[in-house]
Description:
Elements: H1 29-35, H2 49-58, E1 68-73, H3 76-82, H4 87-101, H5 103-110, H6 118-131, E2 141-146
Antiparallel strand pairs: 1-2
Amino acid sequence: MLTDFxxxxxxxxxxxxxxxxxxxxxxxxxxxxxxxxxxxxxxIRVFSPAAARQMAVAGCMYFRPIRxxxxxxxxxxVLKQFEKLPYREARMARATLYxxxxxxxxxxxxxxxxxxxxEEQEKIAALFRRLGLKEEPQFDEYIERYDxx
Length: 149
């Protein structure tokens, strides 16, 4: 059971697992979350017992390890770092970042409505290296949370 998990952050459609006999139950995030669901959550979404038994034997494709990751929130600081570049390169860098995410997602990320995942942070760091920026990208805020993806 996870004692530091915030159940208010659990998406309604996130499927949990109640299969005790699974060989990976002790290291599965879905199982650990299911063990500690508070009484305030009167209903949860779970795998059917038959499906859970079958997945445990075949190798569960829904398995999630119990681990926290560092998410970033907001990219205003990253955009300010681009200002150290010559104007044309700064515009190209911003356009590249815009292209990574697409219009809607770019603005949601920019305003902190959606986190920047670790693999996306690495993609942005690679862009910094390609542009010749010696520093690492600095995001507006960093948050550690369990990886529910």
